[in-house]
Amino acid sequence: MSVTIRPADRRDIQALAELIEEIERFYGSTRIQPLAERQSQVEEALFGSPPMASALLVEDEAGGLAGLAAYSFLWPAAGSSHSLFLKELYVRDTLRRQGVGARLMNELPALAAARPGCSRVEWMTDHDNPGARAFYKSLGFAEFDGKIIYRVDTNTT
């Protein structure tokens, strides 16, 4: 199957909101926000002023969204540089194990290199996600043990 990888644009808001529901369900969430709320969040995150994030999208042969790589630039990284942080990598089940995820991962270093002052690409996965860990290892990426992640939820509802 042939796919196109391209940056998200405003015409993708509804399809991205629908894909986000699929991602939430993939990770086991049972509390799914209404579509209109997800659409508003996608619009604000990707097209607000300033945008909070960017996304590369996987478009299948029929023009439907089949995956994404959502990322942001963070500062500071090494020295006074910044990094591209991959927040979410997701490919629909129908396209998994066909090289689509690898293509997305190959695009990210090019995006980082094209941005002056960007010194690295970083991402994380859960220790208990053997599929993701095997995928990254198959691409030649080594796990980095130097960080412990902390999280505080601000939404109490």
Automatic annotation (TrEMBL):
CDD domains assigned: NAT_SF
InterPro entries: Acyl_CoA_acyltransferase (IPR016181), Diverse_Substrate_AcTransf (IPR051016), GNAT_dom (IPR000182)
NCBIfam families tied to this protein: HxA_phane_GNAT
Keywords assigned by UniProt, alphabetized: Acyltransferase, Transferase
Signal peptide residues on this chain, from the entry's feature table: none
Domain N-acetyltransferase: 3-157
Protein name: Ribosomal protein S18 acetylase RimI-like enzyme
Annotated organism of origin: Streptomyces demainii
